[in-house]
User: Fold BTB domain-containing protein from Trichomalopsis sarcophagae.
Amino acid sequence: LKEFCLHDDLNCTSVRNGILTIYCEITGSRIKIIEQSLSNDLKITFDNQKFSDLTLVVEEQEICVHKVILASRSSVFATMLESDMIEKHSNKVDITDIDYETMKLALMYIYTGNLPASFWPRADKYALDGLKYTCGVFLSKALTVENAFETLVLADLYKDSNLKTNALNFIAKNFADVMTDMEGFKLIMEKHPQLLEEFLCLVGHKTQI
Assistant:
């Protein structure tokens, strides 16, 4: 191949208004693309921290993250990133109201959408509505005689209307067995009297039916 060629040797149709257009045909082996779910891809991104542009400091430990993912998945993080909470030169922000392990798991949810149901209360603080819904569904399926009152209190506290309805219906349906949980009943009676009234009304209504 020639390293250079003369202007006169060029096809006149290739040069217009001083702009050279090169047409070429490239032949190569076909690249096999291995499909992965978005969730798995983002988990890999979180694990290897490649191209991270922000560091969260939690309990003196650092977690490297990506601003665009945090901002797009959580309105609280979006507000944080737009505020003066970030140290401008180092791109670091201190998180003081959550422990390191919980933060790691919360970030795993932000990146992948997967997280144990036990972290449902944390979702309220960081505006992770998807997490609240997922955990609410899980807790509804996991209702038992032993945890019905506690679940009802949590549902009311975090304003999960679906979970609250499911817990109330479970208590009404299994009233005699649920009432063996004296600690749970005491919690409702002493600290959440409005819930006591709600489930007693529901029990009375179902009994009449």
The CA atoms of residues 33 and 132 lie 35 Å apart.
